[in-house]
Design the sequence.
């Protein structure tokens, strides 16, 4: 079994920054992919950023240039540095990890950006 735990959400003013962390633990040999998604009220969950074990990244157009995803393979942890936050970034942010062809999700962490 694999456990995924996010942390780092909170309330921030527009233009501010937050750093989210997500740690995976359990029966893990390798994690080919780690990603961040978000879901705002009344909207579908959407991809924010993804990173492979080799460090290849991709981002949603709405966060390019403002958010940076990174990972520490030794710690099975992925980070999301969020800068220049906007009110429209307000959402519950979820982390997922791909382990042995199975996606595991965290419980989510709330990010609220005030105008």
Sequence:
């Amino acid at each position: 079994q694999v456990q995924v735990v996010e942390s780092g959400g909170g309330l921030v003013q527009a233009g501010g920054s937050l750093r989210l962390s997500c740690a995976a633990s359990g029966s893990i040999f390798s994690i080919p992919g780690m990603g961040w998604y978000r879901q705002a009220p009344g909207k579908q969950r959407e991809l924010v950023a993804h990173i492979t074990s080799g460090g290849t990244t991709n981002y949603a157009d709405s966060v390019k240039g403002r958010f940076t995803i990174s990972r520490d393979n030794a710690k099975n942890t992925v980070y999301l540095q969020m800068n220049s936050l906007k009110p429209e970034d307000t959402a519950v942010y979820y982390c997922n990890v791909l382990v042995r062809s199975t996606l595991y999700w965290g419980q989510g962490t709330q990010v609220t950006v005030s105008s």
